[in-house]
Amino acid sequence: MTKLVINPSKKQSKINKEIYGHFSEHLGRCIYEGIYVGEDSPIPNKNGMRTDVVEALKHIRIPVLRWPGGCFADEYHWKDGIGPKETRKKMINTHWGGVVEDNSFGTHEFFELCEQLGCEAYVNGNLGSGTVQEMSEWVEYITFEGVSPMADLRKKNGHEKPWKLDFFGVGNENWGCGGNMNPDFYANEYRRYQTYVRNYHPDHPIHKVCCGANVDDYEWTSEVLKTTHNHCLKELHGNMDGLSLHYYVHPEGWEIKGSATDFDDKVWYKSLNKALFMETLIERHGHIMDEYDPEKKIGMIVDEWGAWYTVEPGTNPGFLYQQNTMRDALIAGITLNIFNKHSDRVKMANLAQIVNVLQSVILTDGADMILTPTYHVFDMYKYHQDAMLVDSSVETETIGVEDEWQVPNLTESVSVAEDGAVHITLTNLSLDKDYEIRTILTDYQVNEVKGEIVHGEMHEMNTFETPDQVRVKEFNEVEKTAEGIKFIIPKCSVLHLEVR
Ligand code: AHR
């Protein structure tokens, strides 16, 4: 029997709801078709936003949405996306398929979407090819209430009141598609641009996110913090509320990536091993952040993460459309457990991308919509949002088929919600073994247990023909014991237990 020990009274850190955030980019069919279909569409919509997608996202309690990119952000000029739609400029989406972007989804539409979703707004500004003035004016347009050129323009365009802007990214991937800068150059640019990201509402300030590293580029983290910390920014926090990190799982590496649906046992374990690397990244980048910010006031913002495979055969290579299987359910479950466990430093994360792109929670085909295995994991994990992480540990053994890509058989995280319920999320990475779990809940009287599970064969997925192949099922086989509970977690599964 495998021992899982939970101490519900040993509270560790708050799991910010923003860890369960998402990312929408002008890429392929993410915004257009996936979210926005326009008011005249036969697809049911409210002010152009498709109703089925909005309802599905509300169900998983989407806390925050990042927009407009990604690489798209540093080529986006926000003024092209306001005013009457017929006069909005058309542009080439150079990064993603070279298609025409007609700017019919712009600032007003994004905030309308956030309002419908009831979520926070995370706008990513253009530092790579935009000016300081342009960035500053965008913030003024969005948030300033009084009389000013940009507030007046917003009013003229039909929105009297300002919107609430929760997070603002000062550039995206400026080490790459956002301008190919070196860390010192970017850090100086950050210092300049962020100065003009004005907080017009001290009661709900904008949280500024600085562009952080690609994967394990620890030098970027060090150099950016060194340069932003010294000289002008005496008090780093306030000028920088978050530092981003981007990490994707490419099973066969960046060049080949690998199929989303056609893989064997070896690739299964390799993919999960790569997902587990997120923990090393958080620890090592976190260690550097600790040097400059020992009180952990600056959040690590993992605003792009997920699995990135070869596009589905026959689809536009620039649209990055991929399917989603039980492997993605495990990648999501493992990664979210890691974020929960590091919620003292990780303050937000945004899965890439919300609809029709990389590890999406929703796929659409015209008027049809399906929910992916990853969606169902977010559904089961939603109870961790704003709950307190508590002390827990599980016994593990090492499994896998190749020496290089071994993984632990189980991962877990546990939180206590405001109403006192204990939420346990557990992943079983094994393809062939179920495990009996003896759970010890220290100083806790168990009265009631409810469970739900996502499991299946590793290739199982939802298609437009079989939309419910993978879904959340009730899990009732839990026994109360003198010390807590016991149950068997099946192979290849993600489990959520609610204990009261
Ligand atoms: O998610 C796809 C792309 O990956 C994003 O646009 C970019 O930021 C990253 O390189």
Polypeptide structure, described:
The chain is of the alpha/beta class and 500 residues long. It has 2 domains: 2-8 and 390-499, Immunoglobulin-like (Sandwich), CATH 2.60.40.1180; 17-386, Glycosidases (TIM Barrel). It has 10 helices and 26 strands. The chain has helices spanning 51-59, 107-117, 132-143, 149-156, 183-195, 218-229, 253-256, 265-292, 326-341, 373-381; strands at residues 2-14, 21-23, 45-46, 49-50, 64-67, 91-93, 99-101, 120-125, 167-170, 207-214, 242-249, 299-307, 346-352, 362-365, 368-371, 388-394, 398-399, 407-408, 410-416, 422-428, 435-441, 449-455, 473-474, 478-480, 484-489, 493-499. Strands 23-22-26-20-19-16-1-21-25-24 form a 10-stranded mixed β-sheet, with helices on one face. Strands 2-5-8-9-10-11-12-13 form an 8-stranded parallel beta barrel, surrounded by 5 helices. Strands 3-4 form a two-stranded antiparallel ribbon. Strand 3 and strand 4 form a beta hairpin. The radius of gyration is 22 Å and the shape is globular. The mean pLDDT is 97. The structure holds alpha-L-arabinofuranose (AHR).
Write the layout of secondary structure elements.
Blueprint: E1 2-14, E2 21-23, E3 45-46, E4 49-50, H1 51-59, E5 64-67, E6 91-93, E7 99-101, H2 107-117, E8 120-125, H3 132-143, H4 149-156, E9 167-170, H5 183-195, E10 207-214, H6 218-229, E11 242-249, H7 253-256, H8 265-292, E12 299-307, H9 326-341, E13 346-352, E14 362-365, E15 368-371, H10 373-381, E16 388-394, E17 398-399, E18 407-408, E19 410-416, E20 422-428, E21 435-441, E22 449-455, E23 473-474, E24 478-480, E25 484-489, E26 493-499
Parallel strand pairs: 1-21, 2-5, 2-13, 5-8, 8-9, 9-10, 10-11, 11-12, 12-13
Antiparallel strand pairs: 1-16, 3-4, 6-7, 14-15, 16-19, 17-18, 19-20, 20-26, 21-25, 22-23, 22-26, 24-25
The structure holds alpha-L-arabinofuranose.
The site of alpha-L-arabinofuranose has 9 residues, from loops.
